[in-house]
Write a structure and sequence with these properties.
single chain, 6-stranded mixed sheet, 8-stranded parallel sheet, about 550 residues, about 20% strand, alpha/beta, 19 helices
């Protein structure tokens, strides 16, 4: 079947035909493109389907290079704390939910961020106990690296002062009374999380289906997602995605990052990077090198400005990091390493440079703090930096106090990276930041929150709209070595396209916030079509 998508303003990002009016699709791939008149003359047979795009802007399908669909799914099943702006409100929300929660059930929430609080600090464990004395409480910070629990949760976990805490994690203890404050950092959360009952398979499947549909509503045609820790391991994760994408044919293309403890099972199943089909594939081996700025667990080369005795958390020492890289290389897989702090990045590059490259590019996820001496080392045809433009909204202005103004000017330096030749792929890290790529594009261009009016934080690092679009299209294809089949609108590539209500290249950056995604086209099929207005500022 032939479909002619025509009367559009197609920005192909292919230098051989950068702008066309019509794209012809057959069997899920682009077979021709050009002017409206020429494509109708050549392909306008009676059996062809013609889709008039009403002069709308079209780009290659948007790609999110780093998110967690499973966490978006589970967030739909828990309390959403993103809009909580004070300690009192957080305690009130917990109290209200606790009144409806039996003692045998866990009270869970995600999205709190003390940097958004207009009043009050974090609640103490005693305050959490006072509003939820009977049921265990587990509240995940927006970054996913810091957690709040009550005494009931620690009791169920069997916590004691001499308990072994997983490497890289900390149970924060009050230095005066030597008792837990209720804060758990990084892997310390494992002592509690392993006692939280898993959702049923059907609950996970339905929530994951909703998350996939939300992604397509946002204009995404492909995502790279890390889910094994949330969805119960490799076998169940693959089964869920296989049923939703290959059997139910929801449409979205998914590349699955493999959290490193599951590599052994991956090998047992005969899987490897690239295993799968054009809809569902195995990706790189996911490894954490450090934590987050918000939790003061990002690993820095010098102490935090607001915590002089602390340089953050090194999740793995050099020997362990080397071993994890070696295990990936033994099965010819690339690594995708979470690095926020500059010392974490230096350690990762030091280790990576000891190994030969493989057929797929390695990935440095976040690359948040980039010292000038590390920039040249990051520039490599075999390395992609996965950047999240919305981090500048979530982290500024408070991050300047946390790491100091000099280092803050070295944070999220995307323009410098692109101009130096670093390969960059755009993502959201949703649900840490909003899923909508248009919000990521707005942040990349303005370097400020939607309602702010200043010139942006470190505005010399702002991208143009076209640069931002390329990062969220061609950049995403580079991250999984799929630039031959996606990332541009070119003959022979997948017919993955995103259609917009307005032309991003012809409006003011803040007008992006009132735009809609008109249509999401995957494999030549319309997987989402806009049916109502939504304002991104309100999401």
């Amino acid at each position: 079947m032939t479909t002619i998508f025509t009367n559009g303003r197609f920005y192909t990002f292919d230098p051989s035909a950068p702008k066309v009016e019509s794209v012809v699709v057959k069997d899920g791939k682009i077979v021709d493109l050009g002017s409206h008149r020429d494509m109708l003359l050549q392909w306008g047979r009676p059996e062809a389907t013609v889709k008039d795009l009403d002069n709308k802007m079209v780009t290659p399908g948007l790609i999110d290079s780093h998110l967690h669909l499973s966490s978006i799914a589970t967030k739909l099943m828990t309390m959403d704390l993103e809009k909580v702006t004070s300690k009192d409100r957080l305690l009130q929300v917990v109290k209200e939910r606790a009144s409806q929660t039996p003692s045998s059930e866990w009270l869970q929430g995600r999205g709190w961020d003390e940097n958004r609080f207009t009043e009050g600090t974090l609640p103490t464990i005693e305050e959490l106990d006072s509003v939820a004395p009977h049921c265990p409480v587990f509240l995940t910070r927006v970054c996913g690296h810091v957690f709040l629990v009550n005494s009931k949760a620690l009791e169920i976990a069997g916590y004691s002062a001499g308990m072994d805490i997983p490497a890289g994690g900390t149970v924060v203890v009050d230095p005066l009374i030597k008792r837990p404050t209720g804060l758990l950092l990084e892997t310390a959360s494992n002592i509690v999380q392993r006692h939280i009952p898993d959702p049923t398979y059907e609950q996970l499947k339905q929530s994951l289906k909703q998350a996939i549909q939300l992604a397509m509503q946002c204009g995404l045609t492909s995502v790279h997602t890390e889910d094994l820790r949330t969805l119960g391991g490799l076998d169940q994760t693959w089964q869920l995605y296989d049923e939703l994408l290959n059997e139910e044919k929801l449409g979205l293309r998914c590349n699955l990052l493999i959290y490193h403890p599951h590599v052994k099972r991956l090998i047992e199943r005969g899987m490897y990077t690239g295993y799968g089909n054009e809809t569902l594939q195995i990706g790189a081996v996911k490894i954490f090198a450090d934590g987050s700025f918000g939790g003061r667990t990002a690993y820095l080369s010098a102490p935090y400005s607001d915590d002089p005795g602390n340089v953050g958390s090194e999740i793995h020492d050099d020997a362990t990091l080397h071993q994890l890289f070696r295990e990936a290389r033994e099965v010819r897989m690339p690594v995708a390493v979470h690095t926020i702090g500059d010392q974490a990045l230096e350690n990762v590059l030091n280790t990576l440079e000891r190994f030969p490259t493989v057929a797929y590019r390695d990935r440095i996820i976040h690359t948040s703090l980039l010292r000038p001496d590390l920039l040249e080392r990051l520039k490599s045809p075999s390395i992609v930096a996965d950047i999240q433009p919305r981090f500048v909204v979530g982290d500024f202005p408070w991050v300047a106090d946390r790491i100091g103004s000099e280092r803050a000017n070295q944070a999220y330096v995307w323009k410098t990276m692109l101009e130096a030749g670093v390969l960059c792929a755009g993502g959201s890290d949703a649900p840490v930041e909003p899923l909508e790529p248009l919000l990521g594009i707005h942040a990349a261009v303005t370097r400020r929150a939607p309602h702010d009016t200043h010139e942006g934080y470190n505005p010399s690092e702002s991208l143009t709209v076209e640069e931002a679009l390329r990062v969220f299209t061609y950049g995403g294809a580079l991250a999984t070595n799929e630039e031959a089949v996606k990332g541009t609108l070119s003959i022979g590539k997948y017919a993955d396209m995103t259609v917009y209500s307005q032309n991003l290249l012809e409006i003011e950056p803040d007008e992006i916030l009132s735009m809609n995604i008109e249509m999401t086209i995957i494999n030549g099929e319309i997987c989402y079509q806009q049916g109502g207005n939504k304002n991104l500022c309100e999401i």
